[in-house]
Amino acid sequence: MSTIARGTADRILDTAERLVQLRGYNAFSYADVAKAVGIRKASLHYHFATKGDLGLALVTRYRRAFVDQLHAIESASDDPLERLERYGELYGSVLRRKRMCMCGMLATDAATLPRAMRESVAEFFAENVGWLTRILEQGRKRRELRFAGTPAAMATFFVSSLEGAMLVAYGSGNVESFDGAARQLLTIVRPERAKAATPTPRRKAP
User: Fold this and answer.
1) How many alpha carbons lie under 13 Å from residue 169 in its C-beta half-sphere?
2) According to the model, what pLDDT value does residue 67 have?
3) Long-range contacts of range 112-118, CB-CB < 8 Å, 24 or more positions apart?
4) What is the pLDDT of residue 206?
5) Which of 34, 67, 151, 158 could form a disulfide linkage to 136, CB 3.0–4.6 angstroms apart?
6) Other Cβ atoms closer than 10 A to 111
7) Amino acid 200: pLDDT
8) Low-confidence residues of the chain, pLDDT below 50?
9) Number of neighbours of residue 158 by Cβ within 10 angstroms
10) In 3D, which of 100, 117, 111, 5 has the Cα closest to residue 50?
11) Positive or negative, the Cα torsion across 74, 80, 82, 84?
C-alpha cells in the first residue's frame, strides 16, 4: 500500500473510531465517514470493503494501542498501586476528550456486531483482565496490595467498574464522578497502614 493510501486509511480509521466513541457502531454510516474524511464512498469501499471490515480494523488497532500503553505503564513504574492508578487514567484521559472507551461502546452493540468483531472486542477485555490479574497477583505476593477474593475476580471488577463509571460520567457530563470512582477502586486494594499503638489512658476512680 502506498504512503498516500496508508494516509487515507489512517484518516478513515481515525474518523470511524471517533464516531464509534461518540455515537456507537450502529449510529454512523459509510456516508458519514466519507463526508468527514472528504472522500467518495467508493474510495472508502476501496480501503474497507464492508463496514464489518472497517470495524474489525478499528478494534485491532485499538487493542494494539491499548496493549502498548499497558507495556508503557509497566516500564514506567514497578509499584503495583501506581500501575493501577495509571491504568485508571487511561480511561480518564479518553473521557476528558468527551469520548467513551471504543470497545466499551462496541460491547453495547454486541448483539448486532459481526462475529469477528465480537470476538475481537471480547479479546480486548480478556487482555485487560489478564494484565490486571498479573499486576494484582504480583502486588499481593509482595504485600503491596491487599484485597478479598482472587486476582482474576478483582481484575474483572476493576474493568467493569471503570467502564461503568465512564458511562455514568459520560451520560451526566460529570467527569469528577469518574475520578471519584477510580480513587475508590484504589482504596479497595490499598493495604491498611499499621496504626501506631497509642496507650489508652486509664480513667481515675471516682
Assistant:
1) 26
2) 97
3) 112/25, 112/26, 113/25, 113/55, 114/52, 114/55, 114/56, 116/52, 116/56, 117/52, 117/55, 117/56, 117/59
4) 37
5) 151
6) 6
7) 45
8) 1-2, 4, 194-206
9) 24
10) 117
11) positive
Q: Which residues contact 140 (CB under 8 A, 6 or more apart)?
A: 146, 147, 151
Q: Do 70 and 77 form a contact (C-beta atoms < 8 A)?
A: no
pLDDT at position 198: 39
Q: Is the pTM of this model over 0.70?
A: yes
Name the burial class of residue 52, with classes exposed (0-12), middle (13-18) and buried (19+) by CB atoms within 10 angstroms of its CB: middle
Domain spanning 52-189: CATH 1.10.357.10 = yes
C-alpha grid cell, residue 171: 451520560
Rg (CA), the chain: 22
User: Residue 32 is placed in which grid cell?
Assistant: 458519514
Q: How many residues are listed for the chain in this entry?
A: 206
Residue that has been written with the C-alpha cell 474489525 in this structure: 56
